[in-house]
Specification:
With 306 residues, the protein is of the alpha+beta class. The chain is built from 8 helices and 20 strands. The longest helix has 19 residues, at 142-160.
Length: 306
Amino acid sequence: MNTKDLLVKFLAQANKGDLKTSEYQKDWNGFKMKASFGMGMAARVPWIAFTVPEVTVSNGYYPVYLYYKDLDVLILAYGISETNEFKETWPIDVTGGCETIKAALGKNVPRYGDSFVFKAYKVEDKQNPVLRDYVTGEFVNEKEIESDLEQILKVYQQATTFEAYNSTSTASQGVFYLEKQLEDFIIQNWDNTSLGKEFSLITKEGVLLSQQYRTDIGPIDILVTDKKTGGYVVIELKKNQTSDDTVGQVARYMGWVQDKLGDENVRGIIIAQSFDKKLEYALKLINRVEVYIYEVDFRLKEFKGI
């Protein structure tokens, strides 16, 4: 089934009030796919969501078609879960550069108003649906519909996945989908990383406290101590490229450690796959934050600047 046929089937069924989803495939080009028309009664906003294995519709972020039946509008959105607040979300160029659904439609919508618009379509002929571009009013052809979905799935893939490979270690083989898995991998292989030679994980009565260290301003990805000085080190992980906004996040946790744990010399470390120029300039004025770039075999090397 191609994308156009999927949407025609979905829109027609949504307008009939049929809630069955058993005939919808569970996989779409490597992503999980799930459709919903409501439970027990017809939903005001039926949807089709595409997720990676570690994400669910109730807990995560994902591309999603949202059909606002009362408005005859279909949105292909950068979706955000309404049920649970997920730790990660879409990258800053999405959250900072795209309109929310409620802003784009200019009204309070019944659900999902805080998700971000990738593409909006006007739906015509509810029984044999056709789509127009919501902004231009032009008919949208099959090729454009296919391309729109491919583009947002590509953004999603880049935002959530990277491949990690090491032929000598079964622990590092496979695909990592979220920063949580990068975090788990580093913790589980702590003694084999360069960090493990310099820093110690924090435990209490045999219980690991370092990972997702609890604070009243949110969890620190990893909090460790320096083996030589005993000082605290805040470690924040970014699965892909990182920028200056990460420095602010690390500085916030460093401030908490300084205030609550009494360490005036707390340090910070950012671990990412790559960085941009903004990060380098931000670090020029913060001398207690270091950057490590992870490689595909998970060796960590300190970023010294250009």
